[in-house]
Amino acid sequence: xxxxxxxxxxxxxxxxxxxxxxxxxxxxxxxxxxxxxxxxxxxxxxxxxxxxxxxxxxxxxxxxxxxxxxxxxxxxxxxxxxxxxxxxxxxxxxxxxxxxxxxxxxxxxxxxxxxxxxxxxxxxxxxxxxxxxxxxxxxxxxxxxxxxxxxxxxxxxxxxxxxxxxxxxxxxxxxxxxxxxxxxxxxxxxxxxxxxxxxxxxxxxxxxxxxxxxxxxxxxxxxxxxxxxxxxxxxxxxxxxxxxxxxxxxxxxxxxxxxxxxxxxxxxxxxxxxxxxxxxxxxxxxxxxxxxxxxxxxxxxxxxxxxxxxxxxxxxxxxxxxxxxxxxxxxxxxxxxxxxxxxxxxxxxxxxxxxxxxxxxxxxxxxxxxxxxxxxxxxxxxxxxxxxxxxxxxxxxxxxxxxxxxxxxxxxxxxxxxxxxxxxxxxxxxxxxxxxxxxxxxxxxxxxxxxxxxxx
Length: 456
Description:
Layout: H1 4-66, E1 68-74, E2 79-82, H2 84-90, H3 101-106, H4 113-126, E3 130-137, E4 143-154, E5 160-169, H5 171-244, H6 250-278, E6 285-287, H7 289-307, E7 309-315, E8 321-322, E9 335-337, H8 339-359, E10 365-374, E11 377-384, H9 391-394, H10 413-416, H11 420-431, E12 435-440, E13 445-452
Parallel strand pairs: 7-10
Antiparallel strand pairs: 1-2, 1-5, 3-4, 4-5, 6-9, 7-8, 10-11, 11-13, 12-13
């Protein structure tokens, strides 16, 4: 018969069955979750492994492209590990290579082994990285060039533990570098030869310029001599006539001698001026710029006077005076120049100014020569009132063989073929370290020469 105890027992059984069922369900779920986790872990492991393989493959390809490999030497165990690319660079079969530092040295060109070993040993002593380029002796006799870089790890007591480094095949780079160096050496030789040729050409042109300028200088001196020679000739003629007529007394004789000596002295000054301008010198010397300009002016002075061209000077801040009356203070002699070539340049510029005035319709020709300091530069400015330089001429003014004058006319043959201003620029800028430029002023052209001064 059914009793309350039986009902309690039935309920317990139901609860036990339900408990076992729940426990079984939990176990199944836990086991399923474990399988899911394991699957995820396996998938992550495979993905990581694939990423590592991809990274290693990328590194391998990068090393192949750059022809660079890495190595590691365990100095405690004397175990050397190379990347795949180093075996390729050294031309060694990995299966036949007993990796060690000694085996590595054996692969180096015999003439470079001591150098490489010394560099490595010194790096261990100094505990500093090193970089070296050396050759490899390949099994087939081929020579390769490699660049090595290395750094090491050390124990606290300084004992070297591990060295790590890279080896890069630079055979092509070295070949190109050697070819470039050879090309540079060839270019340097060609440049030296061209510079020497140009200097020879410059010397020839300067000499030709001097010869042509000498022709005009001699013409100027001859013109300058005509008047004093005529005076001396007339004086001598008068001396004879007065003597034959009995009109010559001591006072008259002294006067005629004094007049003749004055003219002879004037002619002598022209010769001195010509000699000063024509005197050749290839060395720089400390000169007074004013004195050198006045020597060039002295050759042309009689022509300026005969043509009615006034030449005034403004020197070192003084008042305008006739250029021949300007005086050079010894303190102003601070310019190092090739004096004879500078005088030639000034002579050419003054001649050009004279020709410009002649070709213009100016009734009163005027040239102003200004000499002044501008900081550590002394400059000479020659300005005329000949109408200026046309723009189409200005841009070609200093080019060789450019001229607006008829051949052989104007201020000498050298100017007539268009070399005068070109040579002036070459002399001032290349041989004296100064500058020369042209511009137009209010009434005519202005030529400006600037030369560095010596420290006082």
